[in-house]
Every structure is written in structure tokens, then in C-alpha cells.
Amino acid sequence: MPIFLSEAFSMITSCTLPWEGMEVRENGDVVVCCWTRMVVGNVLSKSLLEIWNDEPILFMRQKMLDRDIEDICPDWCPWLLDQRFQNINLAKTFFSPIYRKNRELTSAEIVNGHIKINSFPQYIQILPTLRCNLRCSMCYQDHNAAGNIPFSAYDLDKFLPFLGSLRAVGGEPLMSTHFKQFVSDFNPDQYPDLRLGMITNGLLLNPSFIRLLPGRFEWIDISIDGATQATYERIRVGASWPTLMQNIREITNCPSRDYRITVIFTIMKDNFHELPLMGNLVQELGIQLSVHPVRGRSHGQQIETLEDVELVLTNLKFLQLNTSLVVKHIEGTIKFYEKLRKLIIDSKFDVEGKLTETIRSLVSVQQQPFRRDVKGIRYGDRKEKF
Description:
Layout: H1 17-20, E1 21-24, E2 29-31, E3 38-39, E4 41-42, H2 48-51, H3 55-66, H4 78-82, H5 97-111, E5 123-126, E6 135-136, E7 165-168, H6 177-185, E8 195-200, H7 207-210, E9 217-223, H8 229-235, E10 236-237, H9 241-252, E11 260-267, H10 275-285, E12 288-293, H11 306-321, E13 327-328, H12 330-345, H13 357-363, E14 368-369, E15 371-373, E16 376-378
Parallel strand pairs: 1-5, 3-14, 5-7, 7-8, 8-9, 9-11, 11-12, 12-13
Antiparallel strand pairs: 1-2, 2-4, 6-10, 15-16
């Protein structure tokens, strides 16, 4: 079977992610990535295996092949802007015949325009717990342990031989005993092509867990949202800057480190002025930076004034000019704020110069459930086009 390189897929589909994997949200909803507006199922009512070829995701795959994605994906999505089909690239060495065969099958199914597929997901993102040791000022989650998705609901054993990436988010993943036990029990020799990833606040990275990182993890993303102790501890209530910096240096300087480390900086009212400082900090630490606009129910942290948007754009473009700094998602984030700037200029201001409630509702990506109606198949009521 021929092996198709990632660059070829841009001629076939808008995005390959609906053929590649699934992510589980805090309420059990399943999406193919965090940027899409479309929900393709819920793990509390159907298994991931059932969702993988259920009607909603078939619909989404067809939309991608038709390049008719305006209603399901924002045009500032970094995956779309970067044409990044890196997960599907087969120009590398694989160790497991089962894994390689599945990758080849996925490749062929995309090239042939199949929407009902026989290949298995190559990545799955799970949410082991909603519990968290912090209470961040912009967080939209309800950290209620009673609302946790049972770890057994993911049924991971059915997918492990085919996966290249298993990612954990939260809540704080390191507050899940099930996830920590899974990492401890995970045998890289049994699944040589599979590596783990995790988004964490970094405060619970203790020596015993750090010892498990090499050979198991491909990447660690650490959410910081502040380049100084004062800003960081004001936004991330309950956090300790000295503990964070110590933990980052320990995982960075790990002698057997074979994983990449990225700092996630969510841009909001209380921290956008520190973007240049954050660039300096990650360079000093020798790691990467990832930038994102705050979205969803952000408790007043959404940037709403023209003056602030202009300053955000200035800071982002300053980071972009630093060729020695790796900044993920910066193109999509710049486009987001350029669209927001136009939206503000074209809108009527209230007496304080802030966005009206109508315009504010356009700022957030709202993921919507799939459904049928008399007009045919659709993904849900369209809430916004921003």
C-alpha cells in the first residue's frame, strides 16, 4: 500500500483531523479538536468506538472533503491556517506493524474520500478528572468530582495498539489516581509507537512522577498565564511561582529527557501586557511557547476594547519577529485578534467603549451538538460565525 505524505492531503480535504482522532470534553462531549464548533457524540451515552463511525462524524468528514466548513470551524483555526497535517505524515520509522498498517489505511481512506472508515484513531484525548488544585480567574470548568467521567468509559485497551498519541487534560490530570496509575503501568515496549501527552499546571510534578516521563511522554504542556509572580499568582489562585519554576527546571534538566516542554499562555485582560516578558522567560528556560485567546465563559477576562486589542496584536507581532523563539498557534491567534479588531471598529460602542452583549457573544467558539431536522443533516443551531 502506498504511503502518502502529509503535504498531499491539503489538495483533498480542508483538514484530516476527523480521520485521525477524538477529544473528550468535560461534560463527555466528543470533538475532533478543541477549535471546532461541532460535537460528534458523547462518551457518556455511546462508546468512543461507536462514535468513531457514527453519523455526526461521517457528516463532518464529508464537510471537510467538500471544503464546506464555515459552519463547523472558525477560519482562524491554527490547523487550517498552517495546513498542518503532521499527525498523518508517514515519512518516519514505525516499530509496530499493527500501528503502521493502521496509519497506511488512514492515509488511503483520506485519499479515496472515504467517510465511513476501517482505520482506528491515531490520537485520543481524555479528561481523567475535573478536580483541580487551583481556582483560576478565567476558568469555565466546574471542578466537581461528582461530575468526573469514569476512566473505564474511555475503554482505552481497544485503541492502544493503534494510537500514536494519548493525551490527558483536566481539571488537573495529576489529581487523578487512575491516570497516574495508568502512566505507571504503561509499558512503552508493548506499544512502541505510542507516546503520552499532558496539559498540566505543573505544580504537582513531583520527583516520583518526573521519573516516569522519559520513554513514556512525547510532550508536557504547562499552563502558566503569567510571566511574573504577581500576575501568575493573581490569575492562578492557589498557585506558587517558586514551586512552578522549580518543577519546570527539574523536568527541563532531566538527564534522560526525550520529551518537549511547552508553556501555554492564555491571553486575557490581566496578562496580555506580559506577552513580551513571557517570550523572554521561555527562552531563558529553553522551552517552547503556545499562545491562545481566552474563550468561553471567561469571567470578564475577554479582551473587549479596541485599545487592548491593538496592544495584543503589537505584542504578538513582536513575538513573531523573534526568529529564535518557537511560538505555536501564533498565526491563528493573530488572525483571531485581527477579526476582533474589525468587529469592534464595525460595531456600535456603548458609553464605555466596550462591545455590546451581542458582539461579545460572537467572540467565543461554542461547540454545538449534531442533529437532524426536516431540512436534512446539520450539526446544530449556528450560534456564531466569528
